[in-house]
Amino acid sequence: FRTTTVTVSNPTQEQFENLPFTTYCPCSRIAISYDQFTSINVRFHQVCSSDFISDRWIQTIFTGSNTTYFYLKDFRTYGSAAFQALASFCHLSKTSALQSVTLFNQMSIISPEILTQSVFQSQIDASIKQFQLTTPNEFKIQLNLVQEMTTHSKLQSALQTNYRLSYYSLNTWQLSILRGVLGYFPSNGNSCYCTGDFNCKVPSKIYDIYREATQLIRNNNSKILMLINGFKSSCLPVSAILLSTLECFYNQTCVNQLISFFPTNEKFLAMSFSEQSRFAINSTVQMIVDELMIEKWITNISYDKYFKQCAPNLCTCTKNEKYTFTFILTKIISLLGEFTLVLGFIIRLIVRLIRRLPRTEPITLCQRIKYLFRKIWTKLNMFKHHESNEHEERYQRLGTRLYIFILIITLSILSVYILIEEGVHRITILKPTENQYKHFQKIYSNKSICPCSSMTMTYANFITIQPYYHQVCSSDLVSSQWIQYNAKTTTGLAYAILDYRLNSQPQFQLLAMFCQQAQQIVDNGIKIFLQTQFVSSQIDSQDLFESKINLSISDWQLLMLNRYLRPINIIRTITQGNLLMNSGLNNKFSTTNSTYRNIKILTTNYSNCLCALSSQCMQFMGMYTLNSYTSRFIPIFEFRNFYIGCSSVESLLKSTLEFFYNRSAMFEIDQYLYAPLGSSFNFSALNPALSLPNETIETIVNRLMID
Fold first, then answer.
1. Domain spans of the chain?
2. For residues 589 and 601, is the Cβ–Cβ distance under 8 A?
3. Residue 629 and residue 646 in contact, taking contact as beta carbons nearer than 8 Å
4. What sections of the protein cross the membrane (predicted)?
5. pLDDT: is 47 or 597 the higher one?
6. pLDDT at 221 over 60
7. Nearest to 139 by CA among 198, 82, 92, 90
8. What is the sign, positive or negative, of the torsion defined by CA atoms of 318, 320, 325, 327?
């Protein structure tokens, strides 16, 4: 067999497809952006193009200043706000999807050589599928973070659906305003309070209640005018719409009946049952939002466009062919001709020498050789001419000797050079093992070349990532049992604003939220990172490989940290910058006139630090008892370095968990709680051998809760 190299210049797509699989066709452009050969469009759920997110609908069901005159669970209390949230979700989903598609299109496929159509299709399909999975996940994680921080920061809705303001008289001239948390009690008998759970829900209805100060009043004679199929009431309008289904709004009769309770002549068209959808009619809005409200991804991948962008200048391939009979015959004839020519020359020389030998007595071989060399030395003339005289021949023989001398010296130098010069040897090892590669790398350093059989591979082929979170994220302190244990302390009792029993539940819920968000972001990020393509035309040395991978991992870790901290810091900044009111931590009400009931909103003071000026005002939590004679709270226990202040979030971040490394101290406070466990107390403390007790929670959060 013989190996021949075939080269095709500027191949067409048809020519490339007909070449052998082993053909090497380097692209003229190594990096090609996805938008050069793919297009991604999105079709959203029909609600995002329906009447129910229009300003006309939102204004029609807006009841203005009468909002709080309706019963708490009446659709007219929060309906307009809920559909504003739905319209916002549609807008945010479209914006997020568009931005994600734009970013995806700006990404590049690294293609040192052109891919076959099957490999190209499978690789791009995998990238798009991964993109379609991760894009909604990021939106879902951020939305959940906002909900959690809003709830546990105790921000109050102006609709009074999570906290309720009410007057009570201290004396003839002085009134006080109480801020009470509201609860939602479904028909199964369970109770759910807005102080700790934003998923409290009950069916939404239309009631015949409408008068001042009746938002919480409903008696057995209250008539239910309409049950809105699938719709829910909840602590916040956003929670209400997310927990609801849109069943009523697929039914024209239901829509007409609902709109009849508003003073309007506007007409609204229900959504279509027949429109194809991957969501069931009874899917909650949360389920739809979790998918970024996307009904269908419409993708188009063009291999033709990819080939044009790659634009290989040449393709080379090798072919193994058998020698033909004609080729073999030609070679044999050629060799025979050359062999005959050489033999003819040698034989003529030998015959001449034999003829010139004198016919004398036999002499020995040694004598013959000596005679031959002497004769050659004296008679050899490489520059002889027919017309030369004896004098010229003498100089010609001298020139011949000089020529031979120089030739011998030159050959000697070349021989010595060849002996001392290192030879270049090509050693080929098929499918070398790792040890073989390392051995050659050690001996020949950068002189060894090992091309990869596959230029691209996912990180998942050679990387595993296992995060180890701070022990608090797997401790009892973030368990539902511990949070419920602390939640039982606030029922029906009065507490000081700094009291642990009043503030501990939302603090531990925030702590659990930080852990959950970190785990979701990291888990999602690991999936994406491990699907990233590592491009290498030939194998790297171990040091170079490790440096490349470590750099990629460092960049990815920084990206995950920024993705985690950015929304948290934005919410912290907005909350303080807008001076949003929470349930009494950063403000309090003062009334001085019982006739006009003038209300003053005063900022709270913590250790001579005003919440109006800083969100960092805070003090240690404690246990307090009420002195019945002075009506003042007296401290009986202090939680050192566990804070409460203007903001639940800021206080938690500045706190340490050192108190909860001591189980005896944890058990000691059990007796002061509303429902002490006594001997049944089985919660475990944190282990000081695993982490530093005096480390602030902000420090832990700033490293993504990872040790």
1. 1-35+309-322, 38-110+117-301, 328-356, 454-707
2. yes
3. no
4. 323-351, 402-420
5. 47
6. no
7. 92
8. positive
